[in-house]
Amino acid sequence: MAAEETGREKETPEERKSFGQRLKGIPLHTQILVALLLGALTGPMLGQVAVAIKPLGNAFINLLVMVVVPLIMASLIIGTASLGDLRKLGRIGLKTVTFYLLATAIAVGLGLGAGLLLGPGKGMDESVKDQIVSQYAEDATSRVDQAIAQREKSSIGEFIVRIIPRNPFKAMADTDFLGIIFFALLFGITMTLLEERQRKPLLDVLQGVNDVMIMMVKLVMKVAPIGVFALIASQAAEFGYGMLLTLLKYVSIAIGTMVLFTVTVYPIVLRSIGVSPVLFFKRFYEVFIFAFTTSSSNATLPLNLQVSEEDLGVSKEVASFVLPLGATINMNGTAIYQGVSVIFIAQVAGLTLGVMDLLTVIVMATLASIGAAGVPGIGMITLTLVLTQLGIPLEWIAFVVGVERILDMTRTAVNVTGDTVCAMLVAKTEGELAVPAKDTW
Ligand code: ASP
């Protein structure tokens, strides 16, 4: 039927494109950002509908976490087996751990400083305190129980033993990165002792697994906008905005300090290796948004590996070692959160912390972050470990439970950025940072 007969104007080829085709023209990171904003705006209006679509978001996270273990195993074994130089491995390990510990300690210090300077818990009304305690006491108690279980895992002796997995398959089943890394490194090193004819077929298989996993991440990312929308909309619907207003000063100081850290410390490191921070964030922001949305360094790992290697020029060897390690032991955002939160809780409780207490917080928060996995909500659990050390009753975490999610999202984005900045620094010092196509650093 001609267009005139139906009364419609003739369509241009552009107009004839289907919705799907038009969507394809929009870069994925823009689609994810739009999904995030739409979810945040419409979530509270959609109410129960938003909560009902939460499983879509969780399914998306599961799809990504599913890729993590085989991807890390394969890429770390390939990296180590082709390294052929144990000294290099030791060097990379030392640089990585030094960066992570230093950055985390500086981050806690900054959090404490901001808290002391700006007083997030000063001048809170007694009636507001009572309201918060009665509203969140139950939630706080269940977190305290989790913390007690976690504390057993966090002693230094237990930590060293835990790095060596008795059963590597269990380590994989539990996504225990430290155990997985230990086994994969040893596996790769042992492979170098085999003859070439024994090693080669295994390496080919692992390379195949690695390639399939990377392709799988790319496929899964195609549904990222739907997953991100579902996650954010349901969180926005469930979020207590009233509590956000009550604790606005604390939340603003915590987020403000994380932003400050991100726009000062990381750019200084990047500049020192000749990388433009603006270009870095332009290429990295998809990962940043993703970490923010999922609140999980672990779930963000496959995407981070892909972006670091393909867009940021980090070599596979360095990325597959530094990033999984960072997802577990490097938590700069969490460290800042702990610094600000300890001061906030102490102020609300009417306690004064001395210099020794502050030093204890720096050491404890840094150590606690090493043993904690990159999953949602773990930062609050490790906060209770720090509070215990100071002798502050754990029930006081009731004061931070109500705004936990938004702070968890922010600190995860900072945590993941720190991992990638470290990977770039290590790659540069090893002569393994390529200049990505089209741009110069
Ligand atoms: N969710 C954070 C992460 O995955 C950890 C935390 O709770 O602070 O990095």
SSE order and pairing:
Layout (H helix, E strand, L loop, with lengths): L2 H4 L6 H4 L2 H6 L3 H19 L1 H5 L1 H30 L2 H33 L7 H28 L2 H8 L4 H6 L3 H15 L4 H26 L2 H15 L2 H6 L1 H25 L4 H18 L2 H14 L5 H14 L2 H18 L5 H17 L6 H13 L7 H4 L2 H26 L12
Helix pairs in contact: 4-13, 4-16, 6-11, 6-12, 6-13, 6-17, 6-18, 7-15, 7-18, 7-19, 7-20, 7-23, 8-21, 15-19, 15-23, 16-17, 16-23, 17-18, 17-23, 18-23, 19-20, 19-21, 19-23, 20-21
This protein binds aspartic acid.
Aspartic acid binds next to helix 21 and helix 23.
Q: What does the model show?
A:
The chain has helices at 3-6, 13-16, 19-24, 28-46, 48-52, 54-83, 86-118, 126-153, 156-163, 168-173, 177-191, 196-221, 224-238, 241-246, 248-272, 277-294, 297-310, 316-329, 332-349, 355-371, 378-390, 398-401, 404-429. It has a domain at 92-160 and 237-429: Proton glutamate symport protein. The longest helix is centred in the N-terminal third of the chain and has 33 residues, at 86-118. The termini are far apart. Helix content is 80%, strand content 0%. It is an all-alpha fold. The chain has 23 helices and no strands. Residues 1-8 have low confidence and may be disordered. Helix 17 (297-310) packs antiparallel against helix 18. Aspartic acid (ASP) binds next to helix 21 and helix 23.
Task: Characterize the biggest β-sheet.
Answer: none
CATH superfamily of the domain at 92-160 and 237-429: Sodium:dicarboxylate symporter
H and E string:
HHHHHHHHHHHHHHHHHHHHHHH
Structural class: mainly alpha
What's the number of extended β-strand segments? Answer: 0
Q: Count the DSSP helices.
A: 23
Bound molecules: aspartic acid
Q: From the coordinates shown, what is the CATH architecture of the domain at 92-160 and 237-429?
A: Orthogonal Bundle
